[in-house]
Amino acid sequence: AQSVTQPDIHITVSEGASLELRCNYSYGATPYLFWYVQSPGQGLQLLLKYFSGDTLVQGIKGFEAEFKRSQSSFNLRKPSVHWSDAAEYFCAVGTTSGTYKYIFGTGTRLKVLA
Amino acid sequence: ETGVTQSPTHLIKTRGQQVTLRCSSQSGHNTVSWYQQALGQGPQFIFQYYREEENGRGNFPPRFSGLQFPNYSSELNVNALELDDSALYLCASSGVATNTEAFFGQGTRLTVV
Asked: Residue A2 has what pLDDT?
């Protein structure tokens, strides 16, 4: 079955510390992969995407993610977190067969300590 | 900010009522997808419309229905509302090709009482 797992429901980091949010997926074909961020009461903003090619992708706001096919992972990283990064982060797979749709993980809520 | 707009932003309905949510897609996008995001969950795919036809559906009952208009805007209709329908409903517009990202609106927060 197609699925996306974000094993960390909540993560708390200090401002200036590094961040890694984990994402594992289960999908039969080569997936398209995305990270979105959602502030309270808001819609989803795309941070970065992976379709093919270089497995390390750069996104907005200083985020990057690395696609590791052997581990079925697409972890999100940021070297130095800012207080404004506090939000909920969703990893998603874009299905490449049948209807093109997104399968989302359950999200990781990031809290940033001053 | 994306060019996808949704209305209304919030509404409250009573169990058993019907509701219509609206979405204007981003310019140049001909595909609209709807997602339901329950509290504390990731968005779940409801259905997708392409060229005014339903182009795929998730695991939602028939009382969830939709429309797409010639200008690619879309409506989501939910009949016989249940308490569990309380959620944030997100509209996403995209191009027809698969290697494109979807742009999401701000959502409509539906509360069923």
From this structure: 85
